[in-house]
Specification:
Helix content is 37%, strand content 23%. By secondary structure, the chain is α/β, with parallel strands linked by helices. The radius of gyration is 17 Å and the shape is globular.
Length: 219
Amino acid sequence: MKKRIGILLSGRGSNFEALADSVAAGRIPNAEIAIVISHREGAPGIDRARARGIDARVIPSKGLEREAYDRQVVAVLQEKNVDLVCLAGYLRLLSPYFVQAFRGRILNIHPSLLPAFPGLESQRQALEHGAKFAGCTVHFVDETLDAGPIILQSAVPIRDDDTVDSLSARILAEEHRIYSQAVRIVLEGRYRIDGRRVIILSDAPIPNNVAKNAAKNHV
């Protein structure tokens, strides 16, 4: 039986499309995207999901307290028998109710090497701080902002002439790559959690640049 993925997004949905492409190509095998949900009317990601024939719904959040809204979203995810929830540019904090309903089954992709530069505008934060590397992180979601156990990361060197846009574009390409890898690892159960560390089992794929960086560090 295929594992069922639920996607939450707020905007264009590029990470959703990367995941959908990976499912279609078999890079995330034995899986399907069961539902795409946005809290924003007119979110381009919703139209893109519908164009692919995926059930996509807008559940407006305006005027609702966080938990009241999340109860509606959780109800739809449960109705669709979702196994894994993937946040794909979802600009809302999840309530403890939501986290508890899918504990250990919610992933997020963040455009920084967490725990550095959590929250919004991470690329701008990295540039203003003078960091030499930026990147992205796939992590489990808990009740704390951008602080759940880390599954995969990818480092992106910051160039002297980088702008927020140029850096964001290079990070986004890595987001698309490692999010699909992380989803596959989690759906196939090829990991264990030791404290805060996510240990990827030996037969799990390791991102190319992570492997290269590890080799350099052991020279």
